[in-house]
Amino acid sequence: MIELDGSGGGGQLVRTALGLSALTGEAFEMENVRGARSNAGLRHQHVAATRAVAAVCDADVEGDEVGSETVRFEPGPVNAGDVEVTVGTAGNLTLVFDALLPVAYALDDTLTVAVEEAGTDVPHAPPIDYQRHAKLPLLREYGVDATVDVDKRGFYPDGGGAATLTLDPSDATALDLSSRDSIKRLAVYSVATTELRAAEVAHRQAAHVENALDLDVEIEANADYVGAPSAGSVLVVVAEYEHSRAGFARLGERGTPSESVADSVVQDFRDFRRSGAAVDANLGDQLLPFLAVAGGEVAVPEATDHVDTCLDVLDAFGYPVAVEERADHVLLSRTE
């Protein structure tokens, strides 16, 4: 039984432990779950992630309740098939999927996981289009056969979104992301709810990105309007390089002009271009379990708090990762 302390971080520690536990067959107990957060303990999306992973590997679980600050997880073999879970709030479903992605390495057939009554685009979590168009295409290049289909959008505070993750048997291929090469394309994904169609919110967000950037590459702009229980908008920009990707995202906020939302995303992209990183900082955080298992190197703009707090969990499962400061980036690498 691996003993873990969750007091130094948030839900990423739980998700990382769940995925690696299912993959390796190693049981764990985490105390002080989300101890660094003002609302310590599991939230609805963490409970959903725990139950989803447990269903995939027929695990014995203790503490899978909202507010629980101790989780004990004893996995069995990973199974293919169909799993359904409900979050029940605007808790983000992309984070539920994140906990499940590493089990692709242990599958012998297709696994589908449907998450309902959740948030697809909410604060403090990657939007669904970031996961679909930045993270998963990059992981597919390194052997992780994963796709996400959106059934219904869910914005804060009502949620109500639904999506399905499909995982197929995958091979662990070392990540070769130590440098950034030339940019091939910039893709813009701008989505707003139908209430905001008259104000052309989605189109204004997308158009402002195109107008603000002077790039000698193709810019593909997508602007869509969707139904959702709560009004909202989201903007995701994905920079596609020869051998890497980087994503930048913002949610629209009441009273904030669409052009200001776009400006903040453009500035994040410009800051990234001044670094020597291969992927953006948030993607670097999310690649840690795959770097740990498959090996390789990942260049990020900086080592975030998520990286620092996650290293102990990776090491406890036998996957040490080193962090090396370079002149214009930070290099993450699997060590023996």
Automatic annotation (TrEMBL):
This is RNA 3'-terminal phosphate cyclase. It holds the Pfam family RTC_insert. Belongs to the RNA 3'-terminal cyclase family. Type 1 subfamily. Residues 180-271 form the RNA 3'-terminal phosphate cyclase insert domain. It comes from the Archaea. Signal peptide: none annotated. GO terms for biological process: RNA processing. Catalyzes the conversion of 3'-phosphate to a 2',3'-cyclic phosphodiester at the end of RNA. The mechanism of action of the enzyme occurs in 3 steps: (A) adenylation of the enzyme by ATP; (B) transfer of adenylate to an RNA-N3'P to produce RNA-N3'PP5'A; (C) and attack of the adjacent 2'-hydroxyl on the 3'-phosphorus in the diester linkage to produce the cyclic end product. The biological role of this enzyme is unknown but it is likely to function in some aspects of cellular RNA processing. It is found in: Cytoplasm. Keywords: ATP-binding, Cytoplasm, Ligase, Nucleotide-binding. One of its GO terms (cellular component) is cytoplasm. Residues 9-317 form the RNA 3'-terminal phosphate cyclase domain. HAMAP family: RTC (MF_00200). Its EC number is 6.5.1.4. One of its GO terms (molecular function) is ATP binding. InterPro entries: RNA3'-term_phos_cycl_insert, RNA3'_phos_cyclase_dom, RNA3'_phos_cyclase_dom_sf, RNA3'_term_phos_cyc, RNA3'_term_phos_cyc_type_1, RNA3'P_cycl/enolpyr_Trfase_a/b, RPTC_insert. ATP binds at D98. The active site is at H306 (tele-amp-histidine intermediate). It catalyses: a 3'-end 3'-phospho-ribonucleotide-RNA + ATP = a 3'-end 2',3'-cyclophospho-ribonucleotide-RNA + AMP + diphosphate.
